[in-house]
Every structure is written in structure tokens, then in C-alpha cells.
């Protein structure tokens, strides 16, 4: 599937729930969100049908996200269903890691290829400050459980937060010395609830580049990746604001309530609910064709009206 600007669309991010056990300061309000009724959220059958239609249209990479995807009832069945579509689909999950001690092995057995685990800090206090409800040990046990279950190529998502974790960048980079992980520093995006955050929290990954001098450099999708000689892991920089990658964007997103968003930062959405077979495929193709050319995060900001927990990052 190509959009009208010739970009090849191969990657679907599927949000399986908007609920979460954490309340990260850049993602959700402190008092949480109004719980949608069961019928407002895509069923496992609907999620499977969207994955199938997308695969038949040329999508070969599917990421399950949320909210916290591992809280979603039926997540293992969904992974099995997607895996049964084809052994060639790259199936991954983005998670806060808290449920991995009990679920990592089941996810592996269900055919999940890769995990991204969010970890913004190595400090107990700052972990609680950022997640409002989580404990650092949960994320660390989660990473360990994923490695024990045989997941390699684990990526750690670290959102750069001025005044909160920017002083920890060196210690976070040090994690890659003995750990075969890719630690990805991501610029905080002013989207939905995070638009209310203090301006000082929005810092650019350019601040980190000078710390990576001398490291080997490659590109992995939207990340610029650095690896120090002798280190087991690598460091990725993802800079949607300072270094926009819209020209090579290959993604579409589906929210937990069934709206296809051709661009994270646009409020344009296409309702997929109630559609099946050729109708569903036609709606996906139409949305892809109308994918906006670029966002305007660095000028007018994000037009998206939803919070990240509804879109999935
Ligand atoms: N709950 C899972 C987690 O936290 O990994 C998956 C959903 S979460 C919305 C997906 C990713 O989006 C996380 O890595 C999170 O840190 C990131 N994220 C959330 N809000 C963000 C924002 N305003 N700017 C940049 N990244 C954000
Ligand atoms: Fe939950 Fe992930 Fe949002 Fe944090 S970033 S509140 S863990 S959905």
C-alpha cells in the first residue's frame, strides 16, 4: 500500500486498550480516564480482522500497544491469531513491563517476536513521580523476565524529560555496556494531555548527541543508532520534533475504539467498526491514501485531540 506521496505503508500499530495500571505524567491525567464500556472497545475478533485485512494489503509489521496492552483480556489469543496469519509478520508489543514476570513466556509461545519496554529512569523516586502509580522494581523485573523468556533485541523506550531524567542520561547509556538492549531516547511530544506540561520538560535529543561521539553509527527505521566499541547494547535517538521523519513514515495506527489514524499528530480518523472483508480493506486503503504529508509539531503543535493512552504512542 502506498499513500498519495509514494510512501510505502508497512507498519500497523494496534491499540488494544486505553486502560493502564500507571498514570504517566505525559500520557494520562492523574485521576485516570473514564472507563469506556466493553462494547466501545474493539473485540479480539475485530482486532484480528483488522490485522488480517492489513496484512493482506501489505502490512508486514504489527505492534500491539495501548494503554497497557498486557492488561487486555485475550491478548495471548490475539497474538496467536496474528501469528497464524503468517510466520513472516514481525509482531511486537510496547509495554510498561509490569506484567511481564507472569506473561513473558506466554507471549513468546504465542509468537511475539520483540518487546519494547518503557523505562524513563533508574531512580525509585523519579519512577514513581513519572508513572504516579508504578514501582521501578516492576519495570526491572519485567525486563529480566523478558530476557529469561528468550526475548532478544529488547528495546527500552526512555522519554527525555527536562528536569526529571536529563541528569541520568549517562547512567542510562551505561546500561548498554553489559546489556544487549537498544536504549531509545525519545523526545517528549506535546500531544493531548502532555500539552499542559511545563515547557522546560520538552528537551531535544540533540543534547545527547555530544555524549555519543566516537560511537559507531547506523540507522534503524526512525532511530539513529549509536554503539560504543565493546558494548553489548546500543543507543537510539528518536527525534520527532528536532529531526522530523515524516518523509519516511510507514505507519498507520488504530485506536482501541476502532478509529484508523493515518498520522499520530492529525485529528483525521477513519472509523473501521462494523466493517468486514472488502469493505474493511477499502476503508484502510482510503485512510492510507489520505495520510498527511507531515506534522507541524515544531510550529503549531499536534492537532491530535486524544491522549497517548488512547492512541498507543
Ligand atoms: N503502556 C505501554 C508503555 O508505556 O510502554 C504502551 C503504551 S505507551 C502510550 C507507548 C509509548 O508512548 C511509551 O513508550 C510511552 O513512554 C510513550 N509516550 C507516551 N506519551 C508520550 C509523549 N507525550 N511523548 C513521547 N512519548 C510518549
Ligand atoms: Fe500507561 Fe504507557 Fe501511558 Fe504510562 S505511557 S500511562 S504506562 S499507557
Q: What does this molecule look like?
A:
With 313 residues, this protein is of the alpha/beta class. It has a single domain (11-311), classed as Aldolase class I (TIM Barrel, Alpha-Beta Barrel). Helices cover 27% and strands 18% of the residues. It contains nine helices and twelve strands. It has a twelve-stranded mixed β-sheet with strand order 7-8-9-6-5-4-3-2-1-10-11-12, covered by helices on one side. Helix 1 packs across helix 8 (277-289) and helix 3 packs parallel to helix 5 (136-148). It is globular. The model has no long low-confidence stretch (mean pLDDT 93). Bound molecules: S-adenosylmethionine and iron/sulfur cluster (SF4).
Helix content: 25-40%
- Main sheet characteristics: 12 strands, mixed
- Secondary-structure element pattern, one letter each: EHEHEHEHHEHEHEEEEEEHH
Label the CATH architecture: Alpha-Beta Barrel
- What would CATH call the class? Alpha Beta
How would you summarize the topology of this molecule?
Elements: E1 11-15, H1 44-56, E2 61-65, H2 75-85, E3 90-95, H3 100-109, E4 114-118, H4 124-131, H5 136-148, E5 155-160, H6 169-178, E6 182-187, H7 206-209, E7 216-220, E8 223-227, E9 234-238, E10 251-254, E11 259-261, E12 270-271, H8 277-289, H9 308-311
Parallel strand pairs: 1-2, 1-10, 2-3, 3-4, 4-5, 5-6, 6-9
Antiparallel strand pairs: 7-8, 8-9, 10-11, 11-12
Helix pairs in contact: 1-2, 1-8, 3-5
Amino acid at each position: 500500500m502506498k499513500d498519495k506521496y509514494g510512501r510505502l505503508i508497512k507498519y500497523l500499530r494496534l491499540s488494544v486498550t486505553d486502560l493502564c495500571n500507571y498514570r504517566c505524567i505525559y500520557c494520562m491525567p492523574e485521576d485516570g480516564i473514564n472507563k469506556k464500556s466493553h462494547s466501545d472497545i474493539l473485540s479480539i475478533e475485530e482486532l484480528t480482522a483488522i490485522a488480517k485485512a492489513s496484512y493482506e494489503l501489505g502490512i508486514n509489521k504489527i505492534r500491539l500497544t495501548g494503554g497497557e496492552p498486557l492488561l487486555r483480556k485475550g491478548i495471548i489469543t490475539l497474538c496467536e491469531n496474528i501469528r497464524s496469519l503468517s510466520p513472516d509478520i514481525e509482531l511486537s508489543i510496547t509495554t510498561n513491563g509490569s506484567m511481564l514476570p507472569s506473561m513473558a513466556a506466554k507471549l513468546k509461545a504465542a509468537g511475539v517476536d520483540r518487546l519494547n519496554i518503557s523505562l524513563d529512569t533508574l531512580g525509585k523516586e523519579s519512577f514513581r513521580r513519572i508513572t504516579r502509580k508504578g514501582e521501578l522494581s516492576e519495570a526491572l523485573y519485567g525486563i529480566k523476565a523478558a530476557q529469561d523468556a528468550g526475548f532478544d533485541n529488547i528495546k527500552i523506550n526512555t522519554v527525555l524529560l527536562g528536569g526529571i531524567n536529563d541528569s541520568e542520561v549517562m547512567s542510562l547509556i551505561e546500561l548498554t555496556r553489559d546489556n544487549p538492549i537498544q536504549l531509545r531516547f525519545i523526545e517528549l511530544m506535546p500531544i493531548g494531555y502532555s500539552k499542559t506540561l511545563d515547557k522546560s520538560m520538552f528537551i531535544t535529543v540533540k543534547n545527547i548527541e555530544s555524549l555519543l561521539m566516537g560511537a559507531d553509527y547506523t540507522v534503524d527505521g526512525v532511530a539513529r543508532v549509536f554503539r560504543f566499541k565493546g558494548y553489548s547494547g546500543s543507543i537510539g535517538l528518536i527525534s520527532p520534533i528536532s529531526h522530523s521523519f515524516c518523509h519516511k513514515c510507514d505507519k498507520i495506527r488504530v485506536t482501541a475504539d476502532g478509529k484508523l489514524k493515518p498520522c499520530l499528530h492529525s485529528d483525521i480518523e477513519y472509523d473501521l467498526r462494523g466493517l468486514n472483508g472488502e469493505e474493511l480493506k477499502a476503508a484502510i486503503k482510503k485512510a492510507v491514501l489520505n495520510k498527511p504529508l507531515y506534522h507541524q509539531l515544531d510550529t503549531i503543535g499536534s492537532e491530535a485531540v486524544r491522549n497517548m493512552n488512547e492512541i498507543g504512542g
